[in-house]
Amino acid sequence: MSWADLTRRPLPSPTTSRRYAPHESGLVDIWIPDTAPPHPVIVMIHGGCWQKAIADRTLMNYAAEDLRSAGLAVWNIEYRGVDEAGGGFPGTFKDVSQAVDLLGLEGPDLGLDVSNLVAFGHSAGGHLAGWVAARANLPPDSPLSGDVPVSFGAVINSGGLADLAASKAVTLPSCLSDIMDRLTGTPEPGRRNVLEDTSVASLLPLPARLINVSGDQDRISPPHLGRSLTEKARASGGVSAYYELADSGHVELIAPGTEAFEVQKRLMMSLLSDSLLPEAEE
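Above: the chain's sequence. Below: its structure in token form.
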């Protein structure tokens, strides 16, 4: 499936939006079901190789509307890419933190249930979803460390590049290796290991269930990334599961109507209801 197959569809619009920061990208789009509150919530984070020139939050509008129609609220966040002023390290990470923390402040007044949140991140967004769920594990001297007022029950890392070191070697150079220094910052006194507070693989075990989902034909995020991160999470003592979806590439993972997206929607429903997960489809 190509990106055009998805983006040529009519673009749905959110129910409302909120601003978490004064810069242009400091926005959250909110999708609220027509059912009675309180609504279970998916925190959605888009990909695009951490670069706004490649994608912004509207890429996820199709998925967000499908979930809204199924009775789930969606908190679809924007953040500064490494190609924007203030983006990269630490701005991109601080944006994600602020956008998520706003949910804790304003979500209840919007009829959103913030007691059992699930983060759903695609591609680069899978990295940011895992990272924001792992904030309690940040080194205390990291410039990204701080209060963690919002917690997650689970993270779905969908075709994600969450393990930065492993991903750098296999994804497109323009997607990660060419922009790695801007994303993670460069080594300096007091912060020699730049992956220690930026890569999900360095923050394990997550204080949330980590669900890694891969399409078996994904060339942006090859399946072994999801398998490997699952193994690392389990070895660290965390709770993790891996789903490899047949006949699926990178785009299918966020395209409503595909089997890949339907599997993940079922996962979200199970995680939000805290019921047993569907059997892993490896």
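Residues 3-272 form a domain with the Rossmann fold fold (CATH 3.40.50.1820).
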